[in-house]
Amino acid sequence: MDSEHIKEVMIEAAVITVSTTRDSISDSSGALIRDLLTGAGIRISYYVVIPDQIPQIREEFFTALKKANCIIFNGGTGLTHDDCTIEAITPLLEKRMDGFGEIFRQLSLEQVGTAAILSRAVAGVTSGKAIFCIPGSNGAVTLATSELIIPQIRHIVTHATR
């Protein structure tokens, strides 16, 4: 789709950090996402740090749906016993964007080698809103936000709201 078919839509972002060890002061990845988005002219309408707990993740998902059309969850996507962002969010996606995770892992391969197979990055849409679940490392959030989310968010929201 060429740029003439992309609506000039206002993007409002929610950034939700999922971590049992961080708070709003020590959340460097959440701060990095917010800085990258605001640097691209995207307003942050909601931000919170929450623990790795499915009910709380889902509660914040529904809160963010009311406040933003771009929702980025960072953290809680790994393989440890308490990582549950993917399990919490995936069932709530109306449509998945499988290419997001595929391309994220491909680009990650160049940065971290075969450790990229540990990434469970997922994206999709619900209620015309774009939802992204990305790993919480600074490198991962920089890659996902600057290389994938920011360049495509208007295109995604244009399609999701048709």
UniProtKB/TrEMBL annotation:
Q: Which InterPro entries match?
A: MoaB, MoaB/Mog-like_dom_sf, MoaB/Mog_dom, MoCF_biosynth_CS
Taxonomically, which superkingdom? Archaea
Q: Indicate whether Zinc appears among the record's keywords.
A: no
Spell out the Pfam families in the cross-references.
MoCF_biosynth
UniProt entry keywords in alphabetical sequence: Molybdenum cofactor biosynthesis
Family matches, as Gene3D superfamilies? MoaB/Mog-like domain (3.40.980.10)
Q: Which residues form the MoaB/Mog domain?
A: 14-156
Q: Kindly list the biological process annotations in GO that this record carries.
A: Mo-molybdopterin cofactor biosynthetic process
Kindly list the GO CC terms recorded for this protein. cytosol
Give the family, as the similarity comment puts it. Belongs to the MoaB/Mog family.
Q: NCBIfam families, per this entry?
A: molyb_syn (TIGR00177)
Protein name (database record): Molybdenum cofactor synthesis domain protein
